[in-house]
Amino acid sequence: MGGRGSRRATSLIYKPNMKTYTAGSIVLRRIDLGEKDRIITILTREQGKLGAVAKGARRPGSKLAGASEPFTYGKLFLSAGRDLDVLSQAEIKESFPNVKQDMRAVAYGMYMLELTNQFTEERNPNPELFDTLLSAMYILESGTDAEITARYFELQFLDLLGYDPHFETCIRCGRKPKQGRLGFSPSLGGIVCDSCGITPSDVIWAPDAIISYINALRRAEPQKLKDMKFPRGVRRDLANILKWHIRYRLEHDLKSADFIDLIAMFE
Ligand SMILES: [Zn+2]
User: Fold this and answer.
1) Do the Cβ atoms of 186 and 240 come closer than 8 Å?
2) Ligand 1 centroid from CA 251, angstroms
3) Does domain 1-94 have CATH number 3.40.50.300?
């Protein structure tokens, strides 16, 4: 008679369906390995984020070349390896050609990928997060303003991960901020009214009209984003608030965010 202990030991060894599997996936990042191979970080709908080796992906004519490029959505055929899984075959579903022709869209697209990569743990599936990223990629591909697409994605993304900034009432006293200006404290993760905003040293002040833009962006149907108008000042305040809110949670900077700042300087 096998006791509880022996049964548990058996279940640890048995890995159902892990040898080879297919996964809907988005390539977040790639690193060249040696002369012919690539290591890719992918977000899969079924298994979350994981690393895989694309053997021979850099050989001329390799079928894995396109499929292992960042910002590619495909169905990947993988096999479980000791450290990294191995990509054996791929079926590209969308390579987002419009995005790749527009440097600004590429910059914001890469930013969304980096954000996803930095905030997710390996093998922790979140199908809703996968769908949110994929939708944002399609929104970008449709020619919607890249900056607005990124803000729309950030709000949804933060919400899904439980880091959504609090914009309804003052995070300190719970009162609605008076008309005029309001502060946003990245460390507190929300807005503070005029009287509570004096203490946190990191407060970013913005006109209170920012709230209506945030709410409109949060509730927007993806196909309506194209028609929404955001004045320059609102864009700047939104970018600032979300950037510092994210940096505070992530505790470091994002490389692609610096690149976006650089592009903005020339606009
Ligand atoms: Zn207050």
Assistant:
1) no
2) 26
3) no
The tokens 């297919």 sit on which residue?
Answer: 22
CA of 235 to the centre of ligand 1 (A): 25
Q: The whole model's pTM is what? A: 0.89
Range(s) for CATH 1.20.1440.120 in the chain? 96-267
Residues 213-257 have pLDDT tens digits of: 999 999 999 999 999 999 999 999 999 999 999 999 988 778 888
Q: What separation in Å is there between the alpha carbon of 183 and the centre of ligand 1?
A: 10
CA–CA gap between residue 235 and residue 231 (Å, rounded): 6
150 CA to middle of ligand 1, Å? 29
Ranges for all domains in the chain classified under CATH 2.40.50.140: 1-94
CB 224 within 8 A of CB 230: no
Rounded to the nearest angstrom, the distance between the alpha carbon of 138 and the centre of ligand 1 is 39
List Cα–Cα distances, 185 to 45, 81, 180, in angstroms: 34, 44, 17
Reply yes or no on domain 96-267 having CATH 1.20.1440.120.
yes
Query: 169 C-alpha vs ligand 1 centroid, how far in Å?
Result: 8
Whole-number Å distance, alpha carbon 195 to ligand 1 midpoint, is: 6
